[in-house]
Design brief:
374 residues; alpha/beta; Glutaredoxin; 2 domains; 6-stranded mixed beta sheet; 13 helices; 18 strands; 20% strand; elongated
Amino acid sequence: MQRLCHLFLLVAPLAWVQVSWAQEPYPLSDEDKKIVEMSRSILQSAVDGSSEFIEPFAPVEQPVSLKHSDEWLIFASSSLGDSSLKQLFKEASATGAIVLFRGIPEGKTLGAAIRDWHTLMAGLDPVPQVRIDPKAFVHWRVTSVPAIFRIEDDKVTASALGVYSKDWLQRQIETGNTGSLGQRGPIHSILEPDLMQVAMQRLQSLDLGALKKKAIERFWSRQTFTELPKATQYRIRMVDPTIVMQRPLLDANGRTLIPAGTRINPLKALPFTQQLVVFNASNAEEVDAVAHWLEGQDRTLRRITLITTQLDRAQGWNSLNAIEKTLDSPVYLLNASLAQRFDLQVTPSFVQAKGLAFEIEEIPAKELVHAKAQ
């Protein structure tokens, strides 16, 4: 992890360059981390809702964010068959009831399950609300379908098994029949496995250590290097960092803070006190030249930041470790934005501030060995 931080986090004095690093400073990519965090969240949800079934329709305690305030819920499963599901969806479309499934059938993807439901909903307007909500099945202790619930303030006004007619249950409520009305029609077992339990099982089967190892191993194969040619002659160039405001900068009230056309030199506001050394770490001659040059530098006088245009992909982390050991310093990776900001053209290049401009000194590696310490 320390090596990753060394590689990608440029020091504070470079912040004004406003570099947006494309590389990720952690072994796991954003996608990897989202998957892991989502899995952990699902796992915790499954654990939170895994109480034993004590009696039908006796709710399990739920977090406030998951409570149902005023809803008609129809619990369903593909075990009902296409014909019954089609009628159930029609009922939900006409009455605004919400159809809940516990998960998706084994062997099917989520996309395939959704396509199947859409086929059964063809021609319905409005399209009924359908949710995959395994926690609702746990919360209301539903183990057979169909079932219909009238929920008010997260409490069951009335519920019944074997039916899914909102009008029928509404009439029962109006005549004083509330609470659990028991089984009023044929019921079926729930075909879909609990999505939370499936997620928990998959998470438990994950080897996070192996995932991290694979992410680290494939890290270098995914990097885009900003390659530069070798310097063939000594040259010094000056780069003016001044920018021109293309549009006015306005405050919250629309007043102009900085008008368009204003010229701004960041070196006036933030001194640049370090020196950048940009080289190709995959070129042994340049590495040796930079190492020789560093031996003549007094690093207590100024900070020296080493930036490479590329590394040996095949050697990856071993290459980085070896380079940092040779140079006795962290090595960062150049990106296109930084190369553009400093108008870097060849390697090795040495960048330092001179007044209100940057001096770019280009020195061929063979000449650098003989260069006098600055």
